[in-house]
Specification:
Elements: H1 2-38, H2 46-59, H3 65-73, H4 82-89, E1 92-98, E2 101-106, H5 109-115, H6 127-132, E3 141-148, E4 158-165, E5 168-174
Antiparallel strand pairs: 1-2, 1-3, 3-4, 4-5
Helix pairs in contact: 2-3, 2-4, 3-4
């Protein structure tokens, strides 16, 4: 009788350990998502971001004048493509959803602007998805989160989200309590 009880007890301990492991992993996943949702991305010198905007505009002869002016002013407007929004808004966090799958991360903008001039042989995600929206929008849900002073003419960064529909900014949403 003692043997059966010790075997049963051992099985219960293993199940308890497994259950606790699953709970710990679930909590870690939730904490990761919360931290990511509050992450503002790299803080870069505003002069560097402005220089990249100028560089971007110089590379694009086809850009409409209102979009060109907005990029140089550091303001995202409706109708911009993701690459135009990044040139205007600076560092960003992206969320791309497609068919129930989601990619979310903080983008390293220091590499982003070189991407257009140095397309890799093999596609990289998400830059490929973001850059291709200008000429070949695909049916994915894209939102980019920014924190800057220029969008709302403030002295401190203000968080906001640019929502995209068919490859263009369709709506801007200022964060309550700064994101």
């Amino acid at each position: 009788m003692r043997e059966v009880d010790s075997i049963t007890l051992l099985a219960m301990k293993k199940k308890t350990i497994l259950l606790l492991s699953v709970i710990v992993l679930a909590v870690a996943g939730v904490v990761t998502l919360v931290v990511l949702s509050r992450c503002r991305g790299p803080r870069l010198d505003a002069a560097w971001v402005a220089a990249q905007a100028e560089r971007y505009v110089a590379l694009r002869e086809d850009i409409a004048e209102p979009v060109r002016k907005s990029i140089l002013a550091g303001k995202i407007i409706e109708g911009m493509t993701p690459d135009e929004a990044v040139a205007a808004g600076g560092p960003f966090k992206y969320v791309i959803e497609d068919g129930g799958r989601m990619m979310a991360s903080v983008a390293d903008i220091r590499l982003y602007f070189d991407y257009a001039e140095n397309m890799p042989e093999h596609p990289r995600m998400p830059p490929d998805i973001l850059w291709m929206q200008r000429e070949n929008p695909i049916g994915v849900s894209i939102s980019l989160d920014f924190w800057n002073e220029s969008q709302f003419d403030t002295t401190e960064p203000v968080g906001f989200r640019a929502h995209f529909s068919t490859g263009r900014v369709s709506r801007l949403e200022r964060f309550e309590n700064d994101g």
